[in-house]
TrEMBL record:
<dbReference type="InterPro" id="IPR036034">
    <property type="entry name" value="PDZ_sf"/>
</dbReference>
<dbReference type="Pfam" id="PF02163">
    <property type="entry name" value="Peptidase_M50"/>
</dbReference>
<keyword id="KW-0812">Transmembrane</keyword>
<dbReference type="InterPro" id="IPR001478">
    <property type="entry name" value="PDZ"/>
</dbReference>
<feature type="transmembrane region" description="Helical">
    <location>
        <begin position="7"/>
        <end position="28"/>
    </location>
</feature>
<feature type="transmembrane region" description="Helical">
    <location>
        <begin position="103"/>
        <end position="124"/>
    </location>
</feature>
<dbReference type="InterPro" id="IPR004387">
    <property type="entry name" value="Pept_M50_Zn"/>
</dbReference>
<dbReference type="InterPro" id="IPR041489">
    <property type="entry name" value="PDZ_6"/>
</dbReference>
<keyword id="KW-0378">Hydrolase</keyword>
<dbReference type="GO" id="GO:0046872">
    <property type="term" value="F:metal ion binding"/>
</dbReference>
<protein>
    <recommendedName>
        <fullName>Zinc metalloprotease</fullName>
        <ecNumber>3.4.24.-</ecNumber>
    </recommendedName>
</protein>
<dbReference type="InterPro" id="IPR008915">
    <property type="entry name" value="Peptidase_M50"/>
</dbReference>
<keyword id="KW-0472">Membrane</keyword>
<feature type="transmembrane region" description="Helical">
    <location>
        <begin position="413"/>
        <end position="432"/>
    </location>
</feature>
<keyword id="KW-0479">Metal-binding</keyword>
<dbReference type="GO" id="GO:0006508">
    <property type="term" value="P:proteolysis"/>
</dbReference>
<dbReference type="GO" id="GO:0004222">
    <property type="term" value="F:metalloendopeptidase activity"/>
</dbReference>
Length: 443
């Protein structure tokens, strides 16, 4: 059922983005009196799942779910309809329009994706506001993996700033470190501020690892699972673990390691228990399962660390939504830049369909759905504006050259450039989805 929910969210989000993008081309084409022959969601070689014709345009749904397209008359595009280009130019064709109109037709999809992102972020700001854990409220510090410890970070460090700039939302610390390729972070360790230098080669290792950093929390029990070691020992909701076999221990990550080292054994746990407003310290024997668990559910993090919330009126949500869009555009542009930096090896993290689909949660959350859809809308806009023949950006590049030189590229040149572009795009798709196969099924 979890995978079905993920797939449904992905299909709904992807379909909305493609339709909005192609509508942008359609809108400007019709605005300037250009004939649109087809408007399709997904690609339809050989046959369509569904189609109908209204006016001059055939609307339909293809069977290959990798995007969509509009076929604009008098234009060399993914349809590679070269026969039409051999006919005399008609006034309702794309090639008959002045360069500035053709430019607007080509950027229409990107514009609509950005507009959609702005509208979604305005809606999110007004409906849910901002909910995040502020860096200043991470009072127990963070837990780091081995890659982070190689850099010099230690469990319990509190990150004060990234390259001298404080990061308000703790969830953005890691991406700021990566995207800005920060040379250092400042941490508070045992009450003292320390500078931790980040070598240039660290970015590749960070991108290739999971759980680089997590918020550190104490081990507070929410509920003991029936029949498990915690329940048999009489552990109760609200109990806080404070010692392991007589040694003081406070944090969940410390207990994970200790339990893992004593699988199948009985150990003594020190417990702090509230009893009528008075905290009692007791020691109880607890059995650890063969999997290294005491089988207890932890108190949610929002009950241990405060969640910062900012609500917006409708008028306030408009500039905030625009600001969020700008922030995400800048963030993704930095990701694209990383892909072309060999030192970072960021190209290894490039993902395909499975990576995109895995971003959605296994439960239905409209807030999460719209956040992801807004970000994907920005991704689609930026990817399409890249100056690669066959993409919108490739057409824009040639149109700008035409405007500057006042010379229009020949149809033969456009055909060859589009073919090369499609080969590059196909190679990119194969590489990205190959990474998915390796990441999900082999690694």
């Amino acid at each position: 059922m979890d995978i079905v929910i993920k797939v449904l969210q992905f299909i709904l989000s992807f379909s909305l983005l493609v339709i909005i993008h192609e509508f942008g081309h359609f809108f400007f084409a019709r605005l300037f009196g250009t004939r649109v022959e087809k408007f399709y969601l997904f690609f339809n070689p050989w046959f369509s799942l569904f189609k109908f014709k209204k006016g001059e345009t055939t609307y339909g749904v293809g069977w290959i779910p990798f995007g969509g397209y509009v076929k604009i008359a008098g234009m060399i595009d993914e349809s590679m309809d070269t026969e039409q280009m051999k006919q005399p130019v008609q006034p309702w064709e794309f090639r008959a329009k002045p360069a500035w109109q053709r430019l607007l037709i080509m950027v229409g999809g990107v514009v609509m994706n950005i507009v959609l992102a702005v509208c979604i972020y305005i809606g999110i700001s007004y409906t849910w506001g901002d909910n995040y854990i502020a860096s200043k409220d991470v009072k127990y510090g963070y837990v780091f993996n081995d890659v982070a410890k190689e850099i010099g970070l230690r469990d319990g460090d509190k990150i004060i700033d990234v390259a001298g700039e404080p990061v308000e939302d703790c969830a953005r610390i890691l991406q700021t470190m990566i995207f800005d390729q920060a040379p250092y972070v400042t941490v508070e360790r045992d009450g003292t501020a320390m500078r931790i230098d980040i070598p240039e080669t660290a970015t590749a290792k960070i991108l290739d690892t999971k759980n680089f950093m997590d918020i550190r929390v104490p081990f507070v029990i929410a509920q003991a699972a029936k029949g498990g070691g915690a329940a048999k020992a009489g552990l109760q909701p609200g109990d806080t673990l404070i010692a392991f076999n007589g040694v003081g221990m406070r944090y969940f990550d410390e207990y994970q390691q200790a339990f893992s080292a004593h699988k199948g054994e009985q150990v003594n746990l020190g417990i702090a228990r509230d009893s009528g407003g008075v905290t009692k310290i007791i020691t109880v024997p607890v059995e650890i399962s063969n999997e290294g668990l005491i089988e207890a559910k932890l108190v949610p993090i929002n009950e241990l660390i405060p969640i910062s919330t900012h609500r917006y009126s409708f008028l306030e949500s408009i500039p905030h939504g625009i600001k969020l869009t700008g922030t995400e555009i800048s963030s993704y542009a930095k990701q694209i830049k990383l892909l072309f930096s060999p030192k970072t090896e960021a190209y290894k993290s490039l993902g395909g369909i499975m990576t995109l689909g895995s971003v959605f949660p296994t439960y239905w959350s409209w807030e999460a759905f719209w956040h992801i859809t807004a970000f994907f809308s920005i991704v689609l806009a930026i990817m399409n504006i890249l100056p690669i023949p066959g993409l919108d950006g490739g057409h824009v590049l040639f149109l700008l050259v035409e405007v500057i030189t006042r010379r229009k590229p020949s149809d033969k040149f456009m055909e060859r450039a589009t073919t090369v572009g499609f080969i590059l795009i196909l190679a990119l798709l194969i590489f990205a989805n190959g990474n998915d196969i390796y990441r999900f099924f082999i690694k």
